[in-house]
């Protein structure tokens, strides 16, 4: 993949239930030059999720083939047996369109991508106000089983330790305030060379 200083990217690391989808959508409404980087993953789609828009939902076999072909900028087994990854071709596709990709990925993937694009990446860690609030949001969303909810809450706890790796941290306790902060940070980044 060719890398160029004008090829910026934005990495948002956010646990499940932190409000990242809303924040990401808000960013894309504000800045039309941004575009969501669609990851590949091996978990099944949730009700309402669209293949090719939320994720490319692929089989474990296809994912392994992608790893063997060196198709991924980064990939992780984010949850037990569930793989998620950012394809090189997806970033290149967006850059070719003149867009700046937004990656919504887990902290390990984020640190991995930061190392590969140290000059061009904006990195923001989005934090839920508290673990209890996160659990409540996930429960209210009603998309998770007991097991997958517990897995997401545990992961969010682990991820807190990584916040210091990021250029910015935003605590999403009030959506409007968090969105305004994020928009300010991104505006500054877009104005840099
Ligand atoms: P879910 O969509 O299953 O609730 O949660 C997905 C988790 O995996 C989130 O923390 C999300 O940021 C992360 N994730 C999504 N896509 C990728 C990816 O391409 N790479 C990595 N490393 N993590 C991802």
From TrEMBL:
Keyword annotations of the record: ATP-binding, Cytoplasm, Kinase, Nucleotide-binding, Transferase
Guanylate kinase-like domain ranges (all copies): 7-187
Enzyme class: transferase
Main subcellular localisation: cytoplasm
Highest taxon of source: Bacteria
Cellular localisation: Cytoplasm
GO molecular function, one term: kinase activity
Record field: catalytic activity: GMP + ATP = GDP + ADP
Positions that bind ATP: 14-21
EC number of the protein: 2.7.4.8
Zinc-finger recorded as keyword: no
Summary of the function given for this chain in its UniProt record: Essential for recycling GMP and indirectly, cGMP.
Family classification: Belongs to the guanylate kinase family.
The protein's name in its UniProt record: Guanylate kinase
Annotated organism of origin: Rurimicrobium arvi
Gene: gmk
């Amino acid at each position: 993949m060719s890398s160029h200083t004008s090829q910026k990217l934005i990495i948002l690391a956010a646990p499940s239930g932190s409000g990242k989808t809303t924040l990401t959508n808000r960013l894309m409404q504000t800045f039309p030059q941004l575009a969501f980087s669609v990851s590949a993953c091996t978990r099944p789609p949730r009700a309402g999720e669209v293949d090719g828009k939320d994720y490319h939902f692929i089989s474990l076999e296809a994912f392994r083939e992608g790893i063997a072909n060196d198709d991924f900028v980064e990939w992780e087994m984010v949850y037990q047996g569930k793989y998620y990854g950012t394809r090189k071709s997806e970033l290149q596709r967006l850059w070719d369109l003149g867009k700046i990709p937004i990656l919504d990925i887990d902290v390990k993937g984020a640190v991995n991508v930061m190392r590969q694009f140290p000059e061009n990446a904006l990195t923001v860690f989005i934090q839920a106000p508290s673990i209890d609030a996160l659990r409540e949001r996930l429960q209210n969303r009603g998309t998770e089983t007991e097991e997958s909810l517990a897995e997401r809450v545990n992961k969010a706890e682990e991820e807190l330790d990584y916040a210091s790796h990021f250029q910015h941290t935003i605590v999403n306790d009030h959506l409007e305030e968090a969105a305004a902060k994020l928009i300010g940070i991104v505006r500054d980044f877009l104005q840099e060379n």
